[in-house]
Hints:
α1 (about 5-35) runs antiparallel to α6 and α6 (about 165-195) packs antiparallel against α7. The chain is mainly alpha-helical. The strands form two sheets. Strands 1-4 form a two-stranded antiparallel ribbon. The protein has a two-stranded antiparallel ribbon with strand order 2-3. The chain is built from ten helices and four strands. It has one domain: Up-down Bundle (A middle domain of Talin 1). The longest helix is centred in the N-terminal third of the chain and has 33 residues, at about 5-35.
Amino acid sequence: MIGPLALNLGIFVIALLVLLKGSDWFIESAEKIGLSYGISPFVIGITIVAFGTSLPELATSIAAVLQGDSEIVIGNVIGSNIANIGLVLGLVAVIIKQIDLEQNIWHVDMAYLWGSSFLLAFIIYDGKVNYFEAAILIVGIILFLSYSIGGQERSESNDRPTIVWKDYIFLILGGVLVYAGATYTVVAIEQLSGLAGISKETIALSAVALGTSLPEVVVSLQAARKGKTSLAVGNVVGSNIFNIFVVTGFSTMFGELLIPAGVIAFSLPFMLALTLLFGVMSNNQKITGWEGLLLILFYIFYMVKLFGG
């Protein structure tokens, strides 16, 4: 008879394989469809792909609120944002040696990421998130999408790829596989963590956050491997903005969020520091492999501290 440990390890491996395949389909079809409308790879990454890879965070957070575990939501958001910068961006920079940004993200995108991060800090500082604050967050994502999609120059029609109905099918199917793979990965990780007797708050900041960030990890690495670094960086920036505005905002619509004191004391300042560091590193429109190693070291330090190191 299969024991709980072996069963959850099996679920984890299968879910991860599904996640890998789904992300490959999603990234290819999303980019092709976006390019067919004249949208740049960076904007595709910061909107379409970012939203798709943030679906697991949104789904798990809403489920947590409905189950009366609202303290998991902010832990998931902050932990995922830390993982996106420290782990995802760090790995991409190390693997491809240097990320060269085709677009200056300092014009609006980085400022918006900084602004959304500090707005979240002010909102959760009193230990809860209410409906009024959720409405402000939702307005924030509307403004961001309006600028990102409507404020860019379109490419010439003769430079755009031709799409067929199969591209839309693979986009939807890829998104479903990413969602399903990430969801079951989180379930397996939560079960494995529970067997080890880890607190719910720590699980949210580490296992759940890492599990729901797996789409960003996979999609960004796949994009970087194919030479699409703008899409990879856009995915990280967009996912973090989506996590703050969409995941926090929409989750609050299902019930008031409660914020654990430990999150405010350590994880929140750590996320703000890492976000500022990301901005400083990208100021010259490139992120080197050495800077990527530094980001990974920050993430390792964070995980060690979470588990009482």
